[in-house]
Amino acid sequence: ARQERLDKALEDLGFDPSTLTDDPQFRGSSALRMYNSFVLPKSKGAFATAELPQRASVIANSIAFKARELRSHQEEWLRNHDKSLAEVDKDQMPRYPLTIVLDNIRSAHNVGNILRLAEAARITKVVLCGITPSPPNPSIEKTALG
After folding, report:
1. Which position among 76, 86, 117, 118 has the lowest Cβ density within 10 Å, counted as fewest Cβ atoms?
2. CB pairs under 8 A, 24+ apart, for 99-103?
3. In the structure, what pLDDT confidence band is assigned to residue 121 with cuts at 50, 70 and 90?
């Protein structure tokens, strides 16, 4: 019943609730955590609050805001990244035919630093495998941007 109320409130805001659970960009996001906390409250107090009639619309507004915020940050990162690539004169700086393989690196910050280094060194390819975190990941993006 709570999930149905929340899904309806999200749909009223023009947000498809299935994107939260199906789209990988929302995995681990605060929007998904809010959604899950409302649907599956962990304490008696949270359960009582979730049962209030107006609470679904309040949470839906917060979820929609967090989802828009996440998307805007990702789009801004892509815009800035594309702009910086466009500013580089590709004829003056050739790429080096090297491949860096990141296998089972746990730290997203380390991955971001290595991606940043590979970009600066004009490395051809970086391969991420195993449990290595991959973009889009807020920690990787934050570190990769400097």
Report:
1. 86
2. 99/123, 99/124, 99/125, 99/126, 99/127, 100/125, 100/126, 100/127, 101/126, 101/127, 101/129, 102/126, 102/127, 102/128, 102/129, 102/132, 103/129, 103/130, 103/132
3. confident
Q: Which helix (H) or strand (E) holds 14?
A: none
9 has a pLDDT exceeding 90: yes
pLDDT tier at 1 (50, 70, 90 boundaries)?
confident
The pLDDT confidence band at residue 61, using thresholds 50, 70 and 90, is very high
Per the rule left: phi > 0, alpha: psi between -120 and 50, beta: everything else, 14 is left
| Global pTM exceeds 0.70 | no
Q: How far apart are CA 25 and CA 46, in angstroms?
A: 27
Pick from 55, 56, 54: which is nearest to 10 by CA?
Answer: 56
Token digits for 67?
């989802």
Q: How many residues are given for the chain? A: 146
CB 121 within 8 A of CB 93: no
